[in-house]
Amino acid sequence: MTGKEFAEEMLGRVRAFCQSYDARPPAYSYVPLKTDEQRIKVMKSRLFNEVRSAEIFGGWLKSTPELDVKATLAEAVHEEMRHAALLEQQIRERGAEPYDYRPLPAQMAMFNAFEGLTETVERMAAFPMAGEGVADYMIVKSLRADSVPEWIKAPYRAINEDEETHGNYPAEVLTKHATTPERQERVRRAVEMSLMLRRQYFENLDRWVFEGREW
Ligand SMILES: [Fe+2]
Ligand SMILES: [Fe+2]
């Protein structure tokens, strides 16, 4: 399989995962939420993700030999911190404290798992492609939903614009570098790992938001 065919297969896998939520969107998407208390909980969880993403992209800089990928990571660090600032402001304007959040078990596991990947193609597939791919899909869902108030849509419109500009970047990296059966096999497992942990994170978040479950 060529790198391009393989990249398309992985994109298809991520798309199928996203569509598995169409009938019942998770709390993460804000779509099923009814109160601002629930919405602030989700936004705090997602603020944590923005900062944690910046940390991980920054941590990968030195061990990424490909200069084009290194440059993209460096930009992403700044971008994620900008996203964090947008969400932080919305939370503060609603009288809540943005940084008293305690990450959910599966959320910690997901980011720790990304952090542990050592190869550029695995990293790009697991996080920017599968991880951010799902996040972007859910952002578009929230922007289209009547049940989501404007104070949530406003920051995500800006975030979505950023993410759209480099949306096909991970597929380009896979097209170029995931060209051997061994690499493709490792990437395939990294994508499955990412999606499985993402599903667990969505479940944890649903339980915290809807049932008040604490860990
Ligand atoms: Fe972000
Ligand atoms: Fe991002």
Characterize the structure shown:
The protein is mostly helical and 215 residues long. The chain has helices at 3-19, 36-60, 67-93, 105-115, 120-144, 150-165, 169-177, 181-211. The chain has a single domain, classed as Heme oxygenase-like (Heme Oxygenase, Chain A, Up-down Bundle), CATH 1.20.910. Helix content is 75%, strand content 0%. The relative contact order is 0.19. The protein binds fe (ii) ion (2 copies).
What is the structure about, briefly put?
The protein has helices at about 5-20, 35-60, 65-95, 105-115, 120-145, 150-165, 170-175, 180-210.
Structure characteristics:
215 residues, mainly alpha, Heme Oxygenase, Chain A, 8 helices, globular, binds fe (ii) ion
